[in-house]
Structures
1.
Amino acid sequence: MRPLLLFRVARLLSRPMSDDPRLTPLVASLPASVPFVGPETMERAAGHAFAARLGANESVFGPSPKAIAAMQQAAGEAWMYGDPEAHDLRLAIAAHHRVDPAHIMLGEGIDGLLGLIVRMTVAQGVNVVTSAGAYPTFNYHVTGFGGTLHTVSYAGDFEDPERLIAKAKEVKARLVYFANPDNPMGSWHSAATVQDMIHNVPAGALLLLDEAYVDLAPEGTAPPLRPADERVIRFRTFSKAHGLAGARVGYAIGPKDLIAAFNRVRNHFGLSRISQAGALAALGDQDWLAHVQRQVGAARDRIAAIGMENGLTPLPSATNFVTLDCGAGVERARALLEELVARGIFVRMPFVAPQNRCIRISAGQPAQLDLLAEVMPAALAAARARS
Amino acid sequence: MRPLLLFRVARLLSRPMSDDPRLTPLVASLPASVPFVGPETMERAAGHAFAARLGANESVFGPSPKAIAAMQQAAGEAWMYGDPEAHDLRLAIAAHHRVDPAHIMLGEGIDGLLGLIVRMTVAQGVNVVTSAGAYPTFNYHVTGFGGTLHTVSYAGDFEDPERLIAKAKEVKARLVYFANPDNPMGSWHSAATVQDMIHNVPAGALLLLDEAYVDLAPEGTAPPLRPADERVIRFRTFSKAHGLAGARVGYAIGPKDLIAAFNRVRNHFGLSRISQAGALAALGDQDWLAHVQRQVGAARDRIAAIGMENGLTPLPSATNFVTLDCGAGVERARALLEELVARGIFVRMPFVAPQNRCIRISAGQPAQLDLLAEVMPAALAAARARS
């Protein structure tokens, strides 16, 4: 058991650097931090691989076999740049959603698209609103372009649409970030609530609606697409339910002029040819998506049951993970995380109080959840002894 | 024959847009242009696929079979995010070059890395020096971050290191871009000349040495790696000789503090897991690289011969393309390009005078070059009739 190594790695990555005098003042002012330490980094520090990789909300159920086959086919064609317009994929996505393709922009995951939309709209002194403890990669981009972050606390374990909008009005925010379903808590709001939020976006602001997990949420979680609405841009991904996190394909749905403006700043040839082929095949295999949805549902139930058997409180989830309330503050949650990691189970936890009283466990294969059930009592006992 | 369609497509992409008022003043000021129109866009406009795709300096000889196999294997693991540190690949590259891995940064092609280094060093009003007619994607990034471009003309068909350095001194440039070998002319300077250039980089400036094509150049083209040298950052890629353009993997070699600063702004999880696996296997297959180098050499000779048979002057090349001087100004070159494209052969041409008296043809398979030889006389006759 070497849980402390994890934190040594994190410190190493954020050590102060001697600055190159040619950096812009903005970049020189940025911390050398990484939003997430990758599981491979932890494995190298620990000296062995995880038995269960359940920390990054990846889909252990894998991509569609048709997507794998398409990528294997495309591997031999990797000498060609990918189509910079991702035309076939863009048209397929547009047809899937029954919208004009001019409302769709592909990018290297939602992370890449968030970086671009922040670059397009945020300069030094521009105000941005998000929830305290929401997606840190978004915050990284805002800070990276000199924006000023204003946060609103969660209401219980839910993001708070009304207070996000109120804060946006108060600070005259350019951007408001809101994820539905939410990461890291797994909670969600109804389509009607989200539609109300869109309706109330103040003039001059843009709502970034991150729907990375929406394929795993109940019907009625996503409001109908009205892509001409200038108040909102929505983000979807092939990284979660479609099981293609490592291929890096996400897309934005928004008003045409805003979507077209991505062409002024994006890396036009940045989307892998293999990834485009994989995403296109994944989109075409809705049976596989339904299969994954069923597997994720079963895994959520199992994680919740394991939590309850051990005195932890599972939060309801509309995602491919379950957040377990450890019931005793950040120290207990962190200790349990470390004890699970030391037993070969990669999990993560929220960064900010009061959500950091929880740990977050991604949907696993039955055998992985058997292992989780097996090690949880000892991990929890060790965590209680420490915290 | 519908060559005009190409230009219709280009116009469409650059049509004026109604601006979103939430864009930053800088982004609102940017043209909606694309550095390169992709061949798929041209094919869609023409209604049929190219018979020979010889315009984007891709490697028609393909990636190593070992790289294909590694990517096919990794396709099934694409549900996992790629290692954000690209640890295995970075260490392999470092070992290959016998440098400390802390001098290496991976990115989504040289295009992606150029965007990051420009973001890190260029803000509005910062001066940047390049050659008139050199890589347009670099210029796109400089403009995109508000920098001011200063250009130096080529000396004949060569970039001019001395005048680039003199201009950098004159305008107190932060960045100087220099490609060796050069694209689009295929020319190159000796390692000694490049080392002199590095030696003369003025204080406060950084030389961006783009060595995308260096694997295809004669021995003695690249100066020895001295990665601690604060005056230069060098760029290499798996897109050219390694045949992985569609996988998007490039890397920078530079001083440790500057390399570490990429971590403040990059998209940490942006590198495809499949691409990392492919690049690692490609690097390990130096026999395949030698095979490609031989094939490229033969193709260069053949393109030169086809040019000479038709009264065009081939320029010496240290790359995987040959630039043919059409001998009669931009109209003749453009007409010949269009006539070749209309006959199913995708080629490109330089953007700026006097280089735009040429067309640029990538190394092809023997059958593709047979086709080139077959259609060239009629294409040239048609071009002469038009220009």
2.
Amino acid sequence: MEAGKKIMIVVMDGLGDRAVKELGYKTPLQVAKKPNLDWFAQNGTSGSMDVIGPGIRPGSDTSHLALLGYDPYEVYTGRGPFEAAGVGLIGRKGDIAFRCNFATVDQKMNVMDRRAGRIKEPDTTELVKALEGLKVAGIEAVVKDATEHRAVLLLRGEGLDPHVTDADPHAITKVQLSRPLVPEAQRTADAVNEFVKRSFEILDAHPVNIRRREQGLLPGNILLPRGGGPFPDIEPFEKRYGMKGSCVAGVSLIKGIGRVVGLEIVDVPKGSGGTSTDMVAKARIALKELERKDFVLMNIKASDVVSHDGDARRKVEIIERLDGMAKVLREGLPEGAVIAFCADHCTPVSRFDHSGDPVPLTIYSETSIKDGVQSYDEVSCAKGALGRIRGKDLMPILYDRADRSEKFGA
Amino acid sequence: MEAGKKIMIVVMDGLGDRAVKELGYKTPLQVAKKPNLDWFAQNGTSGSMDVIGPGIRPGSDTSHLALLGYDPYEVYTGRGPFEAAGVGLIGRKGDIAFRCNFATVDQKMNVMDRRAGRIKEPDTTELVKALEGLKVAGIEAVVKDATEHRAVLLLRGEGLDPHVTDADPHAITKVQLSRPLVPEAQRTADAVNEFVKRSFEILDAHPVNIRRREQGLLPGNILLPRGGGPFPDIEPFEKRYGMKGSCVAGVSLIKGIGRVVGLEIVDVPKGSGGTSTDMVAKARIALKELERKDFVLMNIKASDVVSHDGDARRKVEIIERLDGMAKVLREGLPEGAVIAFCADHCTPVSRFDHSGDPVPLTIYSETSIKDGVQSYDEVSCAKGALGRIRGKDLMPILYDRADRSEKFGA
């Protein structure tokens, strides 16, 4: 019995779609020229996959948890902890993480701009430094800047409870006091409120903001936390599967998922996570990772970005670029490796957002049964031999295809 | 982001079938001419659906609950409450409802006819009036006449328990005493037994029955309760989905399901619920409802009626009439609306009753992916891109297709 084979999951973010009027009621996948993705479909086994469940509309975080074999209904504790992990801030059990915006407020705490004039690095990086070592209501507060006007706040201490309301008013109005939703959360609400107050005191007079005002820019003079969640108690990927794995992704949230489950986060080229991403370079990085690891999760965000813009023609172009990436993977895949091509959810261009439609799935390895599917698209894959499966079943299937699964019984 | 789209479910009752010898081992759907149903299949996405689960043989009540997105294993509390709701008798939590038959008994409580010579309105309506304000064992007893020889009994009071045996002997023998199956149900059994006794005392001498005897008809001189169940604690449809909905059905039991979940019950033409139903009129009513509501559930019973008769040729004819209804829906469907064609269960003509075979399903909206299915029938739909789904997943799928679903995660 030889050793288990290697596994790669290629997540083409938001790839699946619905019938698009301007494409003659076909989907972008049905219209695009993609001989390499089709080659995998022709030589692999295909199906359609409800990443969470039929009709359930996934976020990118819950869907990637499912694709890694974790039940999101069990382990998903809100966006905060995964955003925090995305920027490298991993909490311990009991810690609570919040997403924050740098915002602009006047002296009476009226929100003038929820994004502080779309402030970004290096200003945000500079500003969070001023908050280092902060303690609020006796609780340690760790802040880190994230993409653009975003940051994360991690509260670390005893007796915290995530059931508090947001300080972010989500509108142009007064900053809200965080309120406890259960009595045990009083201390957490107090900490959030003190954090908001202190952030204003420290940031309002900060040299970066003085300069911004002089330049006619809005100051990032307060941090507004929202969406608090506790760090999940999640079984590490390596413990669960006995495999070391890497995560090749440009998007912070996906890196966060990878980091929380214990995948190694690999550096990717600048521009990764957007439409300008060099997919071929990313495929080469993923293949290199697979040389030294058992498992690689790869996410390419571009297909989701153009879908949120509702741009069907761009989506077809992006798919044709994804096919170039598939060509590199086809040529460089280690012998015996098992590779899955899928999406984390559909993002129909007609909806401008995620949907709960099932995504097309192809699993390829040298020993895959060929089911006659000729094209990697929503309709063709749905008629494949895998039938309709759930996202959380993907890892067990790949794991078994890689000859790694334990026998249940004798 | 535009508002959610409208949703219609068309339940063609008992439509699915098995291979029928006299139809050359085809199903009635495979033999019937139905260009409009086929149009929906050609332009929509199809699948096969286990309304409850594989091989599980649904009743019309459990199946409609599933089709509305409720798990019948959680919310179905027996036929009594849904029959009661069907005739407009909605109980409160703690109330127990029974189905009843008007029966004919002699003075020694021997059942002569379980249906009292198929007594019906206006006699039954007149008879139940005599039972108004009845109290049995200190419990309020509300009676209402239902279709033909049927009625419903609702017990309302403290400390009731549904675990009692039927007073209806289900055979031509002596009326049974209701017995408690658990000690807590003693009071309920007492109430049932006193109700049966009092119904005989009041009805036997009733002028309607005196006249019936003179006309040589059997008297409906007793009511025999069976199938008691508590009113379910069910989340209202509008709360669950944020949509107002209507139920367009002729059959009392289906109206009951609609009423229990809070759908508006719409008046349908006389004859609806049988084979003489004017399906085209019903389709027009359903379309009119969809103008002012977000959701319509439509049930057409005729296909089930002829199936229970085992009449394959009639079933083919009924399907061709259903196609006329589909034509009206095709021409009148509001822009963007999502429509599903399905059955609540199969009723194979060779079985004369419901079966657990999966039912054919087609979901159509403008953005449906076309899966190449050419005909709306059991075999063709099973090869569609929806694969094989469960009844309780239908509503989440339609809800998402109508762009109404919430995102799980970010």
